[in-house]
Amino acid sequence: MSSGARLDARPWRGAAELSRLAPAWEALAREAGLDPLCNAHSWTEAYARAFAGENDVFGWRFERGGEVVGILALRREPSRGALALRRALFAADGTFDSDYLDPPIRPDLERAVARELVEATRAERGLEALVFAGMPESSRFLAALRAELEERALPRREHAVPCLAAPLAGSFEEHLAGLKPRMRSKVRSALRAADERGARLAWCTRADELEAWLAELFRLHEARWQAAGRPGSFADPRRRAFYQAFAREALARGELAFARLQEGGGEGGGVSAIQLGVRVGARYYQVQEGFDPAREDERVGTALRALALDELIVRGARVYDFMAGDSPHKRDWGGEPRPCTTIAFPLPRWRARLAYGLRRQVERWWPREVDTSAVEAD
User: What pTM value is reported for the model?
Assistant: First the structure.
Protein backbone atom coordinates (compact mmCIF):
# COMPACT_ATOMS: atom_id res chain seq x y z
CA MET A 1 0.00 0.00 0.00
CA SER A 2 1.44 3.34 -1.00
CA SER A 3 1.86 5.82 1.85
CA GLY A 4 0.65 8.51 -0.55
CA ALA A 5 -2.57 6.74 -1.56
CA ARG A 6 -5.79 8.73 -1.22
CA LEU A 7 -7.78 8.44 1.99
CA ASP A 8 -11.46 7.78 1.28
CA ALA A 9 -14.35 8.13 3.74
CA ARG A 10 -16.94 5.38 3.21
CA PRO A 11 -20.25 5.97 5.00
CA TRP A 12 -22.03 3.16 6.83
CA ARG A 13 -25.27 3.04 8.82
CA GLY A 14 -27.04 0.66 11.16
CA ALA A 15 -26.21 -1.80 13.94
CA ALA A 16 -25.68 -4.62 11.45
CA GLU A 17 -22.98 -2.64 9.65
CA LEU A 18 -21.37 -1.73 12.96
CA SER A 19 -21.23 -5.42 13.84
CA ARG A 20 -19.46 -6.25 10.56
CA LEU A 21 -16.73 -3.73 11.37
CA ALA A 22 -15.59 -5.71 14.43
CA PRO A 23 -12.42 -7.38 13.00
CA ALA A 24 -11.03 -4.16 11.50
CA TRP A 25 -12.06 -2.16 14.59
CA GLU A 26 -10.27 -4.47 17.03
CA ALA A 27 -7.13 -4.66 14.92
CA LEU A 28 -6.91 -0.86 14.64
CA ALA A 29 -7.64 -0.33 18.34
CA ARG A 30 -4.74 -2.62 19.25
CA GLU A 31 -2.45 -0.96 16.71
CA ALA A 32 -3.32 2.48 18.07
CA GLY A 33 -2.89 1.36 21.69
CA LEU A 34 -6.31 2.66 22.72
CA ASP A 35 -7.60 2.21 26.24
CA PRO A 36 -9.13 -1.27 25.93
CA LEU A 37 -12.37 -1.13 27.94
CA CYS A 38 -14.75 1.42 26.43
CA ASN A 39 -12.97 1.45 23.07
CA ALA A 40 -13.57 -2.26 22.52
CA HIS A 41 -15.93 -2.98 19.64
CA SER A 42 -18.05 -5.15 21.96
CA TRP A 43 -18.59 -2.23 24.37
CA THR A 44 -19.60 0.15 21.58
CA GLU A 45 -21.90 -2.39 19.94
CA ALA A 46 -23.64 -3.27 23.22
CA TYR A 47 -24.11 0.42 23.97
CA ALA A 48 -25.44 1.23 20.50
CA ARG A 49 -27.92 -1.67 20.56
CA ALA A 50 -29.20 -0.57 23.97
CA PHE A 51 -29.48 3.17 23.35
CA ALA A 52 -29.84 3.64 19.59
CA GLY A 53 -32.33 2.36 17.06
CA GLU A 54 -31.22 0.00 14.33
CA ASN A 55 -30.50 2.86 11.92
CA ASP A 56 -29.60 5.59 14.43
CA VAL A 57 -25.95 4.58 14.65
CA PHE A 58 -23.82 5.67 11.71
CA GLY A 59 -20.35 6.72 10.75
CA TRP A 60 -17.52 6.29 8.31
CA ARG A 61 -14.76 3.83 7.66
CA PHE A 62 -11.66 5.46 6.27
CA GLU A 63 -9.80 3.49 3.63
CA ARG A 64 -6.45 3.87 1.94
CA GLY A 65 -5.60 1.61 -0.95
CA GLY A 66 -8.67 -0.51 -0.15
CA GLU A 67 -7.56 -1.13 3.45
CA VAL A 68 -9.54 0.17 6.43
CA VAL A 69 -7.26 2.49 8.41
CA GLY A 70 -9.82 4.26 10.62
CA ILE A 71 -13.39 3.92 11.86
CA LEU A 72 -15.72 6.45 13.41
CA ALA A 73 -19.01 5.35 15.00
CA LEU A 74 -21.57 8.00 15.99
CA ARG A 75 -25.15 8.30 17.14
CA ARG A 76 -27.39 11.31 17.02
CA GLU A 77 -28.02 13.12 20.27
CA PRO A 78 -31.71 13.25 21.31
CA SER A 79 -33.36 16.54 20.42
CA ARG A 80 -32.67 19.37 22.86
CA GLY A 81 -35.32 21.69 21.44
CA ALA A 82 -36.19 23.36 18.15
CA LEU A 83 -33.49 26.04 18.44
CA ALA A 84 -30.66 23.79 19.62
CA LEU A 85 -28.00 22.57 17.25
CA ARG A 86 -28.44 19.01 16.02
CA ARG A 87 -25.40 17.11 17.24
CA ALA A 88 -23.86 13.66 17.08
CA LEU A 89 -21.84 11.89 19.77
CA PHE A 90 -19.55 8.89 19.89
CA ALA A 91 -21.77 5.81 19.57
CA ALA A 92 -20.82 4.76 23.11
CA ASP A 93 -21.53 8.16 24.68
CA GLY A 94 -24.60 9.74 26.21
CA THR A 95 -25.07 8.40 29.76
CA PHE A 96 -21.66 8.95 31.41
CA ASP A 97 -20.88 5.21 31.32
CA SER A 98 -18.03 5.39 28.80
CA ASP A 99 -14.64 6.96 29.47
CA TYR A 100 -11.33 7.35 27.61
CA LEU A 101 -13.15 7.24 24.26
CA ASP A 102 -10.99 7.42 21.15
CA PRO A 103 -11.69 6.19 17.60
CA PRO A 104 -9.57 3.33 16.22
CA ILE A 105 -7.22 4.89 13.68
CA ARG A 106 -3.86 3.73 12.35
CA PRO A 107 -1.09 5.77 13.99
CA ASP A 108 0.10 8.78 11.96
CA LEU A 109 -3.15 8.97 9.98
CA GLU A 110 -5.15 10.85 12.62
CA ARG A 111 -4.81 14.23 10.91
CA ALA A 112 -5.87 12.80 7.55
CA VAL A 113 -8.91 11.15 9.19
CA ALA A 114 -9.83 14.40 10.96
CA ARG A 115 -9.68 16.27 7.64
CA GLU A 116 -11.82 13.69 5.81
CA LEU A 117 -14.27 13.51 8.69
CA VAL A 118 -15.08 17.22 8.52
CA GLU A 119 -15.55 16.93 4.76
CA ALA A 120 -17.68 13.77 5.02
CA THR A 121 -20.10 15.34 7.49
CA ARG A 122 -21.21 17.78 4.79
CA ALA A 123 -23.23 14.96 3.23
CA GLU A 124 -24.98 14.00 6.50
CA ARG A 125 -28.32 15.79 6.47
CA GLY A 126 -29.53 17.52 9.62
CA LEU A 127 -26.18 17.34 11.41
CA GLU A 128 -24.68 20.62 12.63
CA ALA A 129 -22.10 19.81 15.33
CA LEU A 130 -20.08 17.00 16.88
CA VAL A 131 -19.36 16.38 20.56
CA PHE A 132 -16.56 13.95 21.44
CA ALA A 133 -16.65 13.34 25.19
CA GLY A 134 -14.03 12.07 27.58
CA MET A 135 -11.11 11.76 25.17
CA PRO A 136 -7.73 11.17 26.82
CA GLU A 137 -5.65 14.32 26.75
CA SER A 138 -2.87 12.14 25.26
CA SER A 139 -5.09 11.16 22.30
CA ARG A 140 -3.42 11.67 18.93
CA PHE A 141 -6.84 12.12 17.32
CA LEU A 142 -7.73 14.88 19.78
CA ALA A 143 -4.51 16.69 18.84
CA ALA A 144 -5.32 16.18 15.16
CA LEU A 145 -8.84 17.57 15.60
CA ARG A 146 -7.53 20.67 17.31
CA ALA A 147 -5.06 21.27 14.50
CA GLU A 148 -7.71 20.71 11.82
CA LEU A 149 -10.19 23.07 13.48
CA GLU A 150 -7.50 25.72 13.83
CA GLU A 151 -6.64 25.45 10.15
CA ARG A 152 -10.29 25.76 9.14
CA ALA A 153 -10.90 28.60 11.62
CA LEU A 154 -13.73 26.57 13.14
CA PRO A 155 -14.45 27.47 16.78
CA ARG A 156 -14.52 24.80 19.45
CA ARG A 157 -15.48 24.39 23.05
CA GLU A 158 -13.59 22.19 25.48
CA HIS A 159 -13.85 21.23 29.09
CA ALA A 160 -11.74 18.99 31.27
CA VAL A 161 -13.08 15.61 32.39
CA PRO A 162 -11.30 14.52 35.56
CA CYS A 163 -10.50 10.81 35.79
CA LEU A 164 -8.52 9.08 38.51
CA ALA A 165 -6.49 5.87 38.63
CA ALA A 166 -4.41 4.45 41.48
CA PRO A 167 -1.10 2.67 40.82
CA LEU A 168 -0.96 -0.48 42.93
CA ALA A 169 1.94 -1.91 44.89
CA GLY A 170 2.96 -5.59 44.85
CA SER A 171 0.73 -6.45 47.80
CA PHE A 172 -2.32 -5.06 49.53
CA GLU A 173 -0.35 -4.28 52.69
CA GLU A 174 2.22 -2.33 50.68
CA HIS A 175 -0.54 -0.35 49.00
CA LEU A 176 -2.25 0.31 52.30
CA ALA A 177 1.04 1.49 53.80
CA GLY A 178 1.24 4.16 51.10
CA LEU A 179 -2.11 5.71 51.99
CA LYS A 180 -2.63 8.52 54.48
CA PRO A 181 -2.74 7.43 58.15
CA ARG A 182 -6.40 8.36 58.55
CA MET A 183 -7.33 6.26 55.51
CA ARG A 184 -5.28 3.30 56.75
CA SER A 185 -7.15 3.40 60.05
CA LYS A 186 -10.51 3.62 58.29
CA VAL A 187 -9.74 0.59 56.09
CA ARG A 188 -8.49 -1.56 58.96
CA SER A 189 -11.50 -0.62 61.07
CA ALA A 190 -13.88 -1.56 58.24
CA LEU A 191 -12.11 -4.90 57.74
CA ARG A 192 -12.24 -5.75 61.46
CA ALA A 193 -15.95 -4.93 61.60
CA ALA A 194 -16.66 -7.08 58.54
CA ASP A 195 -14.71 -9.98 60.03
CA GLU A 196 -16.58 -9.71 63.34
CA ARG A 197 -19.93 -9.84 61.48
CA GLY A 198 -18.83 -12.88 59.52
CA ALA A 199 -19.04 -10.99 56.22
CA ARG A 200 -17.13 -12.49 53.31
CA LEU A 201 -16.03 -11.57 49.82
CA ALA A 202 -17.71 -13.37 46.91
CA TRP A 203 -17.09 -13.22 43.16
CA CYS A 204 -19.47 -13.84 40.28
CA THR A 205 -17.93 -16.65 38.23
CA ARG A 206 -20.87 -18.38 36.50
CA ALA A 207 -23.17 -17.22 33.73
CA ASP A 208 -26.22 -18.69 35.47
CA GLU A 209 -25.76 -16.41 38.50
CA LEU A 210 -25.01 -13.20 36.60
CA GLU A 211 -28.62 -12.02 36.25
CA ALA A 212 -29.24 -12.22 40.02
CA TRP A 213 -25.98 -10.41 40.75
CA LEU A 214 -26.85 -7.61 38.34
CA ALA A 215 -30.29 -7.26 39.94
CA GLU A 216 -28.53 -6.81 43.28
CA LEU A 217 -26.23 -4.18 41.78
CA PHE A 218 -29.17 -2.27 40.34
CA ARG A 219 -31.03 -2.41 43.66
CA LEU A 220 -28.14 -1.24 45.82
CA HIS A 221 -27.03 1.42 43.35
CA GLU A 222 -30.55 2.87 43.29
CA ALA A 223 -30.89 2.67 47.08
CA ARG A 224 -27.66 4.59 47.58
CA TRP A 225 -28.69 7.47 45.32
CA GLN A 226 -32.29 7.58 46.48
CA ALA A 227 -31.06 7.89 50.05
CA ALA A 228 -29.18 10.99 48.89
CA GLY A 229 -32.37 12.40 47.39
CA ARG A 230 -31.41 11.71 43.78
CA PRO A 231 -32.98 9.34 41.25
CA GLY A 232 -31.15 6.15 40.43
CA SER A 233 -29.96 5.81 36.84
CA PHE A 234 -30.74 2.10 36.53
CA ALA A 235 -34.46 2.83 36.40
CA ASP A 236 -33.85 3.17 32.65
CA PRO A 237 -34.35 -0.30 31.10
CA ARG A 238 -31.94 0.58 28.30
CA ARG A 239 -29.14 1.08 30.79
CA ARG A 240 -29.91 -2.25 32.42
CA ALA A 241 -29.86 -3.92 29.01
CA PHE A 242 -26.45 -2.44 28.23
CA TYR A 243 -24.94 -3.63 31.50
CA GLN A 244 -26.43 -7.10 31.06
CA ALA A 245 -24.93 -7.44 27.59
CA PHE A 246 -21.57 -5.95 28.56
CA ALA A 247 -21.25 -8.11 31.70
CA ARG A 248 -22.13 -11.33 29.84
CA GLU A 249 -19.44 -10.67 27.26
CA ALA A 250 -16.83 -9.70 29.87
CA LEU A 251 -17.58 -12.89 31.83
CA ALA A 252 -17.25 -15.00 28.66
CA ARG A 253 -13.83 -13.40 27.99
CA GLY A 254 -12.65 -14.06 31.54
CA GLU A 255 -12.34 -10.32 32.28
CA LEU A 256 -15.32 -9.73 34.58
CA ALA A 257 -14.38 -8.85 38.17
CA PHE A 258 -17.78 -8.65 39.89
CA ALA A 259 -17.52 -8.70 43.69
CA ARG A 260 -19.90 -8.35 46.61
CA LEU A 261 -19.81 -8.39 50.40
CA GLN A 262 -21.96 -11.24 51.65
CA GLU A 263 -23.13 -10.68 55.21
CA GLY A 264 -23.56 -13.43 57.80
CA GLY A 265 -21.27 -15.91 56.11
CA GLY A 266 -24.07 -17.52 54.07
CA GLU A 267 -26.25 -16.97 51.04
CA GLY A 268 -29.15 -15.95 53.26
CA GLY A 269 -27.20 -13.25 55.03
CA GLY A 270 -27.85 -10.55 52.49
CA VAL A 271 -25.58 -8.38 50.36
CA SER A 272 -24.38 -5.11 51.86
CA ALA A 273 -22.08 -3.84 49.07
CA ILE A 274 -21.33 -4.73 45.47
CA GLN A 275 -18.95 -3.53 42.76
CA LEU A 276 -18.85 -4.33 39.07
CA GLY A 277 -15.47 -4.11 37.42
CA VAL A 278 -13.37 -5.50 34.62
CA ARG A 279 -9.72 -6.52 34.64
CA VAL A 280 -7.93 -6.17 31.32
CA GLY A 281 -4.32 -7.22 31.65
CA ALA A 282 -2.84 -5.47 34.67
CA ARG A 283 -5.53 -2.79 34.80
CA TYR A 284 -8.74 -3.07 36.82
CA TYR A 285 -11.62 -0.75 35.89
CA GLN A 286 -14.17 0.11 38.57
CA VAL A 287 -17.34 0.50 36.48
CA GLN A 288 -20.31 0.59 38.90
CA GLU A 289 -20.96 -0.01 42.57
CA GLY A 290 -23.58 0.25 45.27
CA PHE A 291 -24.05 -0.36 48.96
CA ASP A 292 -26.84 -0.57 51.49
CA PRO A 293 -27.28 2.99 52.80
CA ALA A 294 -28.64 1.59 56.07
CA ARG A 295 -25.17 0.10 56.73
CA GLU A 296 -23.13 3.12 55.70
CA ASP A 297 -21.81 3.57 59.26
CA GLU A 298 -20.32 0.07 59.05
CA ARG A 299 -18.27 1.18 56.02
CA VAL A 300 -19.35 -1.84 54.01
CA GLY A 301 -18.20 -0.22 50.76
CA THR A 302 -14.73 0.38 52.18
CA ALA A 303 -14.51 -3.22 53.42
CA LEU A 304 -15.56 -4.59 50.04
CA ARG A 305 -13.07 -2.45 48.12
CA ALA A 306 -10.26 -3.51 50.45
CA LEU A 307 -11.05 -7.23 50.24
CA ALA A 308 -11.46 -7.09 46.46
CA LEU A 309 -8.32 -5.02 46.03
CA ASP A 310 -6.31 -7.58 47.98
CA GLU A 311 -7.37 -10.36 45.62
CA LEU A 312 -7.00 -8.23 42.50
CA ILE A 313 -3.38 -7.48 43.38
CA VAL A 314 -2.73 -11.19 43.90
CA ARG A 315 -4.23 -11.83 40.45
CA GLY A 316 -1.84 -9.34 38.87
CA ALA A 317 -3.67 -6.01 38.86
CA ARG A 318 -1.23 -3.09 39.02
CA VAL A 319 -3.63 -0.18 38.36
CA TYR A 320 -7.03 0.43 39.96
CA ASP A 321 -8.85 2.73 37.52
CA PHE A 322 -11.73 4.68 39.07
CA MET A 323 -12.55 6.17 35.64
CA ALA A 324 -14.38 9.51 35.40
CA GLY A 325 -15.13 11.67 38.41
CA ASP A 326 -12.91 13.27 41.00
CA SER A 327 -13.93 12.64 44.60
CA PRO A 328 -12.15 12.50 47.96
CA HIS A 329 -12.64 8.75 48.44
CA LYS A 330 -10.87 8.01 45.14
CA ARG A 331 -7.91 10.14 46.14
CA ASP A 332 -7.95 8.53 49.59
CA TRP A 333 -7.33 5.18 47.87
CA GLY A 334 -4.35 6.63 45.97
CA GLY A 335 -6.12 7.88 42.85
CA GLU A 336 -4.04 10.11 40.61
CA PRO A 337 -5.27 12.32 37.73
CA ARG A 338 -5.66 10.79 34.29
CA PRO A 339 -6.80 13.90 32.38
CA CYS A 340 -9.42 13.74 29.65
CA THR A 341 -11.19 16.35 27.55
CA THR A 342 -14.58 16.81 25.93
CA ILE A 343 -14.44 18.74 22.68
CA ALA A 344 -17.45 20.15 20.82
CA PHE A 345 -17.32 21.94 17.50
CA PRO A 346 -19.59 23.09 14.67
CA LEU A 347 -19.53 21.63 11.21
CA PRO A 348 -18.88 24.01 8.30
CA ARG A 349 -22.47 25.27 8.20
CA TRP A 350 -23.52 28.86 8.74
CA ARG A 351 -26.04 28.24 11.56
CA ALA A 352 -23.62 26.14 13.56
CA ARG A 353 -20.71 28.52 13.12
CA LEU A 354 -22.94 31.44 14.05
CA ALA A 355 -24.12 29.72 17.23
CA TYR A 356 -20.57 28.94 18.38
CA GLY A 357 -19.33 32.40 17.41
CA LEU A 358 -22.10 34.16 19.33
CA ARG A 359 -21.48 32.06 22.41
CA ARG A 360 -17.78 32.86 22.30
CA GLN A 361 -18.52 36.58 21.96
CA VAL A 362 -20.92 36.51 24.92
CA GLU A 363 -18.23 34.89 27.04
CA ARG A 364 -15.82 37.67 26.12
CA TRP A 365 -18.34 40.33 27.16
CA TRP A 366 -19.57 38.67 30.38
CA PRO A 367 -16.93 36.09 31.33
CA ARG A 368 -18.03 35.83 34.96
CA GLU A 369 -21.65 35.20 34.14
CA VAL A 370 -21.13 32.32 31.72
CA ASP A 371 -20.44 28.74 32.79
CA THR A 372 -17.41 27.99 30.67
CA SER A 373 -17.27 24.38 31.87
CA ALA A 374 -20.23 23.47 29.69
CA VAL A 375 -19.96 22.21 26.13
CA GLU A 376 -23.27 23.66 24.97
CA ALA A 377 -22.83 25.85 21.94
CA ASP A 378 -26.30 27.35 21.73
Answer: 0.89
